[in-house]
Amino acid sequence: MTPEEHIARGEHAKRLLDDPLLKEALVEMKQAVMESWAALPVENTAQAEKLKHLLWATKQFEAFFVAQVGGATIARSELLQDTNMQIKAEAVTRRING
Question: Using CB atoms within 10 A as the burial measure, which of 2, 4, 10, 15 is most buried?
Answer without folding.
Answer: 10
